[in-house]
Design brief:
three-stranded mixed beta sheet, 3 helices
């Protein structure tokens, strides 16, 4: 009986960043960090998906802020819409 080689399955890791990750002054730092983390995860057969939380005017919004204001279902929908593969 022959055994086929197991094909490694890629697992998804979601990296959720506060809304200030797209601030023009901070974005290059967030982008570089996310890229380095993504490269490291790829070595372990993990796929990094970056999610930037939307801002609310000038106020920084984190995942906790978003969940408190909009709820879990809104976040799950947002997650489908704004996931960015790096």
């Amino acid at each position: 009986m022959s055994r086929s080689a197991a094909v490694p399955q890629v697992r998804r890791v979601e990296f959720i960043l506060d809304s200030d990750a797209v601030d023009p002054e901070k974005a290059p730092h967030f982008d570089a960090c996310t890229s380095r983390i993504g490269q490291a995860l790829m070595e372990h057969n993990l796929d990094l998906v970056r999610i930037n939380m939307p801002s609310s005017g000038r106020e920084k919004v984190g995942l906790d802020d978003y969940l408190m204001k909009h709820g879990t279902n809104a976040f799950l929908l947002l997650r489908k819409i704004i996931s960015l593969h790096i």
